[in-house]
Every structure is written in C-alpha cells, then in structure tokens.
Design goal:
four-stranded antiparallel β-sheet, 6 helices, 4 strands
Length: 198
C-alpha cells in the first residue's frame, strides 16, 4: 500500500480511545480549557463525519468511543485531534489567570524536548492504545459506553453519570449534551446494514 493511503478498518468497528495529557497533568479543570475539547469534538463530527458514541472529559484525559466516516484507522483521528486541540488549549492556558500556567507550560515543553519533537510544546501523550469494539455486539459496546460514563461517579465528582455535563451520559439519559453524539440503542448500531442510532 502506498505510504500516503490510509488503511481501511472493518466497517463494523468502533474504537475506545483514551487520550492522556502529558504526565497526566490535570489540565482540564477550567471551563475555558474544557470548552476547547467540546468545540473540537463537534468540529470533527461536522467537518470530518466522525461518529461519537460516547465521550467523557476528565481532568487529565479524554475517553471516547468513535468510528471514522471512511473507516480509517483511529490513529489518524487521534493524530489530527491532538494537532488541532494542542495550540488552542495552550493559548487558553496562556490567557487564563491560572497559577499553574508556568508549571504546566514547562512540563509541556520538557515532554516535547524529551522526544526531540519539532513542536515546542506537547499537550498529549503519544499513545492511546485504541481498543477495537465490534459494533455488531451492542451489549459489549454499551458496556464500554457505560464504563466511560461511570468515570465521574467513580471519582466522586457526581452521584449520577448524567449529572456530569462533560460527558455523553446526559444524551443517554434523554437530555441534550454538549457534543453531537449518536446514541446507541439496545439493538445496536447496525440493523440490516442500517444505522440504529439517534
């Protein structure tokens, strides 16, 4: 396969991704930083046809269950998302009155330098270890989605998943969430080769 062609993945594959910040720094504690991720996810849905079945933004990481429109490998989405969000988050860090600003920027720069990267700053760790989830098995998919939604409950941020606004748990509870999500029904994503999502 020529190097400029993206590998095509099975069309029934979704991927569970966890994108971690450098050194698992608690970057996403301020609304301005969180809003960058919300807007970026909506941009990738609208402009790139990304299907997001679940998401949850925690202070140092982002959980996602996604499927690319063209069936390309999740590494391409991950690369583009990190490249897209890094300068915007860093700009927000620079403009916010955050006492941790200098410390965080030093960590982002040190991480970039340790890998000899062209970029001066590096917000995200390099690897997310995507897990393939077969969309033909809705119970498995819904188990992964529910596990993601329980993150803020396990961390004792909220009592119920739908109370956490930076998550798709609200969509699954019948409320409008911040990101355009395709809610998985019990019958799954694929019916007779048709989508069964809201």
């Amino acid at each position: 396969m020529p190097s400029n062609e993206k590998p095509i993945m099975p069309q029934d594959a979704c991927y569970l991704l966890t994108l971690n910040t450098v050194d698992k720094i608690d970057v996403f504690v301020r609304p301005a930083y969180k809003q960058v991720i919300v807007e970026a996810l909506n941009f990738f849905v609208a402009a790139h046809g990304l299907s997001i079945y679940s998401w949850c933004l925690m202070s140092s990481h982002l959980h996602l269950v996604v499927r690319a429109k063209d069936g390309t490998a999740p590494a391409y989405f991950e690369r583009d998302f990190k490249k897209f969000t890094t300068p915007v988050v860093l700009k927000a860090v620079e403009t916010e009155a955050d006492m941790r600003k200098d410390w965080m920027m030093e960590r982002f720069e040190a991480f970039a330098n340790s890998f000899g990267r062209m970029e001066k700053f590096h917000l995200w760790q390099n690897c997310s270890s995507p897990l393939r989830v077969d969309c033909a098995y809705p119970k498995t998919l819904l188990d992964q989605i529910n596990h993601i939604h329980e993150n803020p409950v396990r961390d004792r941020i909220v009592e119920h998943p739908e109370n956490y606004i930076y998550s798709s748990a609200r969509d699954y509870a019948g409320m409008k969430g911040l990101v355009q999500v395709r809610v998985v029904q019990q019958q799954g994503i694929f019916g007779i080769r048709k989508l069964s999502v809201n």
